[in-house]
Design goal:
A hairpin with a 5-residue loop joins strand 15 and strand 16. Helix 5 packs parallel to helix 9. This protein has two domains: about 240 residues, Bira Bifunctional Protein, Domain 2 (BirA Bifunctional Protein, domain 2), CATH 3.30.930; about 90 residues, Anticodon-binding domain (Rossmann fold). It is elongated. It contains 15 helices and 16 strands. Helix content is about 35%, strand content about 20%. The longest helix has 20 residues. With about 425 residues, it is an alpha+beta fold. The protein binds histidyl-adenosine monophosphate (HAM). The site of histidyl-adenosine monophosphate has 26 residues, from strand 6, strand 10, strand 11 and helix 11.
């Protein structure tokens, strides 16, 4: 038997209702906040991520699904959505219609990590990206949307960690301070951090190795090197979050695992789901569009990992679900009535009802069991005796109430009863 690849998941019909539920909330809220959906390809030119995400990040160094296609081009399954959305923004000149351009996406991402609870090789993100404004109130809006989504899906306990990682100007100064702190401690760093020390010392903050974490604990933080403009921006972001009533925790060691961030960086965490506690993260990336060959257009966004959101909801008492409940199952008591069942089913569906029938010529009892298990709200029973007078029985499965209705008017009757229920 062939099984699914490691680190991937099947969403079975019983579970898909949860996905409908959270995806619907994501779409609805995004629209309410003025974000429109964008769909980009699942794979991109590898160079987009090398440049966009940064070639000294864990994602690019160790986690990408990169392959050559038949003509020898290097392609990569997208490990994240920001670089692809920025690429599409540029490629289609979306700025031409006026800034800001506010976009959202839902879809699978791919990272080759070691699978564990909450860490998959194919996972799904709900993300937003807003291009064209450096205004700190936009940072607050983006964070507000992430928080509103988590609240809308029913998450009760989560924390928002907030930091500013500054601009290239403050980062230059910070780099020097950091290097003079780190170089004497070089031997205590893991091999990866040692190797990328000079190229990207900030990455050490993101390293999970115990030895590196210890070194980082007393390292100078970027927040203490912010230039006056970045400091003011950060101050204002906090002010707007206060206005919106959003609680946050300042986390000066939060740097995020991708290189494009400038200024605001944030993460949403839920302790109850174990080591992979970040259910989402984001921040500003004012240099990304330019880095990809466009004008210097600022941007900010977030992405939430939907599997982790579902894990968090389960840890906190369950996930609401949009389940498929059938309005009506058509049951026939004799194979002579099959034509009547087939045409009635077509009529019920044409009337907008969710309807189905038994395809196995089972006994009445077995069909009723099937209706209960489906589950269905009502069954229509076509019996020879009633049908000889042009009638059929409609039974409500919850109440057990049964009525005899003209065969020609069954859909009308069921629709009317449903209106009454609502
Ligand atoms: P990220 O922090 O790399 O940011 O990923 C965002 C979220 O995706 C994580 O917090 C986590 O919930 C989920 N995630 C990441 N990797 C995995 C995995 N292997 N298995 C399950 N879930 C995972 C970004 O991707 C940025 N593009 C976010 C962003 C948008 N920044 C600005 N705009």
């Amino acid at each position: 038997m062939i099984s699914r690849p490691r680190g991937t998941e099947d969403v079975l019909p019983e579970e898909v209702g949860k996905w409908y539920f959270i995806e619907e909330k994501a779409r609805l809220l995004s629209w309410q906040y003025g974000y429109r959906e964008i769909r980009t390809p699942i794979f991109e030119h590898t160079e987009l991520f090398d440049r966009g995400v940064g070639d000294t990040t864990d994602i690019v160094e160790k986690e990408m699904y990169t392959f050559k296609d038949r003509s020898g081009r290097s392609l990569t399954l997208r490990p994240e959505g920001t670089a692809p959305v920025a690429r599409a923004f540029l490629e289609h000149h979306l700025e031409a219609k006026g800034l800001p351009v506010k976009l959202f996406y839902l879809g699978p991402m791919f990272r080759y990590g070691r699978p564990q609870a909450g860490r998959l090789r194919q996972f799904h993100q709900f993300g937003v990206e807003a291009f064209g404004s450096p205004d700190p109130s936009l940072d607050a809006e983006v964070i507000d949307l992430a928080v509103a989504f988590l609240e809308a899906v029913g998450l009760k306990r989560f924390r928002l960690l907030l930091n500013s990682v500054g601009c290239p100007l403050c980062r230059g100064e910070h780099r020097e301070r950091l290097l003079s702190y780190l170089i004497p401690l070089r031997e205590r760093l893991c091999p990866t951090c040692r190797a990328r020390l000079e190229r990207n010392p900030l990455r050490i903050f993101d390293c999970k190795e115990e030895s590196c974490q210890q070194v980082v604990a007393s390292a100078p933080t970027i927040t203490s090197s912010l230039c006056p403009e970045c400091r003011e921006h950060f101050h204002q972001v906090q002010g707007y979050l206060g206005l919106l009533g959003i609680d946050f925790v300042l986390e000066p060691r939060l740097v995020r695992g991708l290189d494009y961030y400038t200024r605001t960086a944030f993460e949403l965490v839920v302790e109850e789901i174990g080591a992979q506690s970040a259910i989402g993260g984001g921040g500003r990336y004012d240099g990304l569009v330019e880095l990809l060959g466009g004008k210097p257009i600022p941007g900010i966004g977030f992405a939430l990992g939907l599997e982790r959101v579902l894990l968090a909801l389960e840890a906190q008492g369950g996930v609401p679900s949009r389940d498929l409940v059938l309005d009506v199952l058509v049951v026939q008591t004799s194979s002579l009535l099959k034509d009547k069942a087939v045409t009635l089913l077509k009529r019920l569906r044409a009337a907008g009802l969710k309807a189905d029938r038994d395809y196995l010529d089972r006994s009445l009892k077995a069909q009723m069991k099937y209706a209960n298990r489906y589950p269905a709200r009502k069954v229509v029973i076509l019996g020879e005796e009633e049908m000889s007078q042009g009638m059929a029985v409609v039974r409500d499965l919850a109440s057990g109430v049964q009525e005899t209705i003209p065969y020609d008017r069954i859909e009308e009757h069921i629709l009317k009863a449903e209106e009454g229920d609502n």
